[in-house]
Amino acid sequence: MMRIADIHCHVLPYVDDGAQDWDESAELLKMQYEQGVRLVCCTPHLRKGMFEIPDKEILEQFGFLKEMAEKIFHGNLKVYLSREYYCDEAFLHRLEKNAVIPYGNGGYLLTEFSHRYTPEQFFEYVEKVINYGYRPLIAHVERYPELQDIEDIEELVRMGAKIQINAGSLLKMEGRQQARWAKKLLKEGLVHVVASDAHDVQTRTPELEKAAIYLEKKLGTEEAEKLLWKNQIQIMKSRRRIENGNN
Ligand SMILES: [Fe+2]
Distance (Å, rounded) from C-alpha 91 to C-alpha 105? Predict the structure, then answer.
């Protein structure tokens, strides 16, 4: 079984539309673990007017989750915390105040976008995030109706963004068009991270083992390991680059 790092999921309970309670949270962690996941980074939503739980409360909840994971997995499952940031004006204010929880050592932020944004708006936000010294990991890139050209994804990558797709998209759990586009991006070598984006134990479940089998079959073991573990570790270890006076 392949070792997997899941760095986009909503397993922290009571903070967004993810896990409803501690039972569901434990269940999700167990499902991930059984599929080969050995590192989980919880990424609760932050979106003005929708998911606004402050970092302080998130950190407190995460403390409990860490204790729970320790009790269940005895150190065999590492858990970390970051957030999934919706790109809007409020997010830019946050960056200005440096009030974000990046991945691991501080280099990357998980960013999601409006379904109405044009490619130009994607470029603008990516540029701004980079100007603040972070690099964006673009959440489930296959989902955005206006972002359907290979050239636009290439440009985002050239700018310094990394690209994440959902495991479920590869398995046709999120519609045929999304599956087709996700697979095309994989084939073009434009995907860096496959993650579960798991929300619950019923419908938006972690499906990483199936995704691992698919990736290994299509791209070989080495490439599958990059998409499920190695690139994630690199993202966790990466540091913020503060050199442009925007700090
Ligand atoms: Fe998400």
Answer: 20
